[in-house]
Amino acid sequence: MEEGATRHCPYCQEEILRAAVKCKHCREDLDVQPPAPPSRSRRRGLWVAMGILTAGFIGSIAWLLDHASDNANAHKCRSNAKQIGLAFALYQQRERGQLPDLAGDGTLRMLHDRGGIDVRIFRCPSSVEADLPPGTFATSFTTWQGGAIVTPFDDFAMHFPLAWEKEPSNHSGIRHVVFLNGFVERMDEARLDEAFEQVRREGWLR
User: Fold this and answer.
1) Confidence check: pLDDT of 26 > 80
2) What is the pLDDT of residue 40?
3) How confident is the model at residue 79 (pLDDT cuts 50, 70, 90)?
4) 65 falls in which pLDDT band (50, 70, 90)?
5) Among 32, 51, 122, which residue's Cα sits nearest to residue 86?
6) How many Å apart are CA 10 and CA 46, to the nearest integer?
7) Is the whole model's pTM more than 0.70, yes or no?
8) Sheet with 141-142, side-by-side order of all strands
């Protein structure tokens, strides 16, 4: 056979005729060039793209975990606000229908001391107070500073904010507010101010 009349199949590397259009060994068509290996710049681009996708995926997972944690804290805080409302109701039951005079954090401290309530009930899990030792009384909720609720209060119990979170920053500008009827509502600053103004306007606190 003449020199240069053969070549190697680009697929199986077996010797074939140079003019062959199909390899007799691997049966691959030879009129189509085999795919060239990716260039160094292309491989670098693929790695960069994979890195961006990975970083985006990790960032999404982190956001979801953080969001889930915020939701869990908000749910626990709402439950705590309801427990505070129940503490007021128990006091009222013991005192034959009378609620305590309201004196801010001091009223909540009194409910804690007299009722033996777990101090963690008075703390939002997202607040700075949440990290304090259990033996230290510190509350992220508060109530009216001075005054007594007028009686009878059945007619306005659903409109009277009894206790609320001090800091709106715990839940992105939203506070958990427990009303005199025990209902807990999430309120922004504007709505809470309206509720405060209604109490003052109607004279429900003397």
Assistant:
1) yes
2) 62
3) very high
4) very low
5) 122
6) 26
7) no
8) 141-142, 161-165, 175-179, 184-187
From the number of C-beta atoms within 10 Å of its C-beta (0-12, 13-18, 19+), residue 201 rates as exposed
- Name the amino acid, one letter, at 50: M
pLDDT at 11 over 70: yes
Report the distance separating Cα 150 and Cα 148, nearest Å.
Answer: 6
Q: What is the mean pLDDT of the chain?
A: 82
> Which of 115, 121, 202, 188 minimizes the C-alpha distance to 158?
202
Q: State the SS3 of the chain.
A: CCCCCEEECCCCCCEEECCCCECCCCCCECCCCCCCCCCHHHHHHHHHHHHHHHHHHHHHHHHHHHHHHHHHHHHHHHHHHHHHHHHHHHHHHHCCCCCCCCECHHHHHHHHHHHCCCHHHHCCCCCHHHHCCCCCCCCCEECCECCCECCCCCCCHHHCEEEEECCHHHHCCCEEEEECCCCEEEECHHHHHHHHHHHHHHCCEC
For residue 130, give both structure tokens: 């949440």
At 185, list the tokens. Answer: 């509502």
